[in-house]
Amino acid sequence: MTVSTASNKGYSVLRNGAVNKSTAFTREERETLGLRGLLPHCACDQDTQLSRVLKNLRRKEFDIERYIFLAALQGRNERLYYRTVIENIEEILPLIYTPTVGQACKEFAHIFRQPKGFYITPDDKGEIRHILDNWPDDDVRVIVITDGQRVLGLGDLGANGMGIPIGKLALYVACAGIQPSQCLPVMFDVGTNNEELLEDPLYLGYPHKRLEGEGYFELMAEFIEAVQDKFPAALVQFEDFLTPNAYSLLNSYRDKVLSFNDDIQGTAAVTLSGVYASTRISGHDFKDLRIMFLGAGSAATGIGDLMVAAFMEEGLSAEEARGRLWFVDQYGLLNKNRDDLMAHNLPYAHDYEDLDFISAIKDIKPHVLIGATGAPGTFTQDVVEAMTELNDHPAIFALSNPTSRAECTAAQAYEWSKGKAVFTSGSPFDPVVYDGKKLKPGQGNNAYIFPGIGLGAVACRAKKISDEMFLASAKMLAGMVSAENLEKSTLYPALTDIREVSLNIAVAVVEKAYEQGLAQEPEPSDLKAFIAAQMYDPSY
To answer: What is the side-by-side strand order in the sheet with 325-329?
Structure first.
């Protein structure tokens, strides 16, 4: 990146994180940019800077301190930050996203250092399009928006939820090479019902109870309309909305604007991919699986909806497909006797007797158990043992985030199943040695899916994100799981391959876009090379 204008000289260069190279500016650049005397004598390379960053990062005692350190680095030297993340993804992903981002959101107002992203409040009604002009970049391609009402498994964190869009967009850049200047984190700050936050003198959000009902949706509609005018090529990703609002927004906009809900659709694709891969260990055909969910919120039923499509692709009818999927919530099995179910639950309510969780496992005999509860410890020893009695290799997906909210730990799953479980979690767990064998739990992290979806959508200027694109993404991801991964009971590729994973998923998405007539760019002769050429390289 070259900086040459008169207004970008001296300290203005060093204070611009997008162009600052700090001590890596050469002698010639220092002369041209008015930096002589403003930097130490040594002109080092980016490798040396990276080494310094890692040494300082690793000397921090707590992960929240590492999060703050990395956020500061991102603000002052963007390219060094992203190179650090990309080349150390297994170490740093848990620091900039789950599980550390959960703590960072809880403490967001208390650790606030530098404004990042865009904030919308009810006070901005009627003026959103006008204030979007305050954003410094005109070519925004990916927007992540949250209202902070259901952050991970932590509940209503109000404006503190801004840590989620910031973190997601960092992954878009690091994992899929979206240009940083094309990313916009948005906090839809309509208040909070969290009394602790409202009473906190350091809280930075709109200090009122949440705006709800018609006013809420009118404000969102104004935002979407403003984005279509200001950033017409932008993908909008909805993140961490309460289930009713999540489904309402998804259903309102999925066919009208380029958008998706990562909690519903991204989680579905990454989980489906893991289930596909698990059949290579269990030996079952996918079309024969019975799958049980603990939890029936937007994430769980979103997974179910995509699995219905996957089963139908295998030749089952919609009714047969839904018959393979069983849901249990805190009140028991979802069945037609229940009068408390929400609209998204109704397709999965079977004509079946009332059963509690353990009884449902023993009676229905699922091959796969998926937890999306936000309630830690709900996969008890009895649950895992019941699954193991029914299956030689029970697939156990404890997907709730952060780590502290997981339905069970990797060690528990392996211990209680005597090493037979194929375990996957939403947040990372360390490898476990059981009976002399090293088992590495897979992480069903949405980072395997959503960055590639975004890259593909941006590359071909897709009109919308179709369900078929998520199905193609799940298949592509499952196909990248190696025999070596499976030998360690791991259902996902190594995170170190995440850029290649995202590129391949982007190719699958774009192929589907051209097939469905949803792409607006002319089709290139070499699709993979065309997409790869658009990926951000943070090297100087």
So the answer is: 332-333, 325-329, 291-294, 368-371, 395-398, 422-425, 442-443
User: Is 350 buried (19+), middle (13-18) or exposed (0-12) by CB count in 10 A?
Assistant: middle
- Comparing CA positions, the residue from 299, 348, 355 lying closest to residue 325 is 348
Q: What is the CATH number of domain 100-257?
A: 3.40.50.10380
- Measured between alpha carbons, how far apart are the two ends of the chain, in Å? 8
Which residue do the tokens 């593909």 mark?
456
- Could you tell me which CATH number the domain at 448-532 has? 3.40.50.10380
**Residues catalogued as catalytic:** 97, 168
Read off the pLDDT of residues 260-283 as tens digits, 9 standing for 90 and up.
999 999 999 999 999 999 999 999
Is residue 28 a contact partner of residue 58, using CB atoms and an 8 Å limit? no
User: What whole-number distance in Å separates Cα of residue 448 and Cα of residue 497?
Assistant: 10
Which is nearest to 430 in space by CA: 461, 463, 406? 406
| Rounded Cα gap, residues 176 and 363, in angstroms | 43
User: Is 524 buried (19+), middle (13-18) or exposed (0-12) by CB count in 10 A?
Assistant: middle
For residues 507 and 497, the answer to whether their CB atoms sit within 8 Å is no
Q: Which residues contact 185 (CB under 8 A, 6 or more apart)?
A: 116, 117, 118, 143, 144, 162, 165, 166, 168, 169
Is the confidence at residue 3, as pLDDT, over 80? no
Domain 265-444 adopts which CATH fold?
A: Rossmann fold (3.40.50)
The Cα 426–Cα 267 span in angstroms is 9
The b/e string for 472-511 (b: 16+ C-beta within 10 A; e otherwise) is: bbbbbbbebbeeebbeebbbbbbbeebbebbbbbbbbbbb
- Verify cis geometry, omega within 30 degrees of 0, for the bond prior to 99: yes
**469-506: per-residue pLDDT in tens?**
999 999 999 999 999 999 999 999 999 999 999 999 99
C-beta of residue 236 within 8 angstroms of C-beta of residue 453: no
Residues in a beta bridge with 96: none
Cis omega (within 30 of 0) for bond into 402: yes
391 Cβ neighbours under 8 A, 6+ residues apart: 282, 367, 420
Domains 100-257 and 448-532 share a fold: yes
H/E element holding 227? helix 214-230
Q: H-helix or E-strand containing 390? A: helix 381-390
Q: Which helix (H) or strand (E) holds 83?
A: helix 78-87
Confidence band for 401, pLDDT divided at 50, 70 and 90: confident
Contact of 270 with 278, CB cutoff 8 Å: no
Q: Domain spans of the chain?
A: 1-44, 100-257, 265-444, 448-532
Whether residue 119 contacts residue 132, with contact meaning beta carbons closer than 8 Å, is answered with no
Q: What is the mean pLDDT of the chain?
A: 96
User: Radius of gyration over alpha carbons of the chain, in Å?
Assistant: 24
In the chain, the amino acid numbered 519 is A
Give backbone dihedrals phi and psi of 233, rounded to 5 degrees, phi first.
-95, 5
This model's pTM is above 0.85: yes
